[in-house]
Amino acid sequence: MTAAIFFVAYGLQVQCLKMAASEGTAIEQSGSLNQTDGYEKKCIFCKIVNKEVDTEVIYFDEELACFKDIKPGAPHHYLVVPMKHIGNCKSLKKDHAPLVEKMVEVGKAMLQKNGITDLNDIRLGFHWPPFCSVTHLHLHVLAPASLMGFTSRIFYRPDSYWFITAEQLLQRLNSFNENT
Ligand SMILES: [Zn+2]
Ligand SMILES: [Zn+2]
């Protein structure tokens, strides 16, 4: 790894941890002691979907919820999360693929509902641990991708080792054998 890449990556991680902290989100400690039945009491996203905090949930069904990212990286920036606390994208198994697909569908539907017509100019994906280690699985939905600023382009950069697009994650999950 060159020094330059290291510093970009390191800076990114620090920034992400700050973002996570500013969201009031518990950073993942090794092993989660507070998890009971899909609800983790220190998790801000669990609080949001259970309407314990003031964040406006703009969509929800029995499985998923959607709300705006508090630090938008593009004119439209939504987060789609499962109602139940599920860990980060690295921990997902093959049988999570339908859930991820549904997260993508909801993300696209939210964009369309809010006036985005060019679904080729969007960015959908997940931060790869340890970058942005907010524990609760969340899909970043950004549009238009062409209007993302310099920092956002780095933060949500496809083919980087800190961000995986929804498409790449689905390929990964579908490449797994059953039960792995
Ligand atoms: Zn949670
Ligand atoms: Zn994130």
TrEMBL record:
Residue spans crossing the bilayer: none
Residue ranges annotated for the HIT domain, each copy included: 44-153
Pfam family, one: DcpS_C
InterPro entries noted in UniProt: Histidine_triad_HIT, HIT-like, HIT-like_sf
Active-site feature positions: H138
SUPFAM superfamilies found in the cross-reference section: HIT-like
Motif (Histidine triad motif): 136-140
Position of the signal peptide: 1-16
GO MF entries: hydrolase activity; nucleotide binding
Catalytic reactions on record: adenosine 5'-phosphoramidate + H2O = NH4(+) + AMP
Keyword Ribosomal protein: no
UniProt keyword terms in alphabetical order: Hydrolase, Nucleotide-binding, Signal
Gene3D superfamilies: HIT-like
DNA-binding found in the keyword field: no
Family: Belongs to the HINT family.
PANTHER family reported in the protein's UniProt record: ADENOSINE 5'-MONOPHOSPHORAMIDASE HINT3, APRATAXIN-RELATED
Name the UniProt record assigns to this protein: Adenosine 5'-monophosphoramidase HINT3
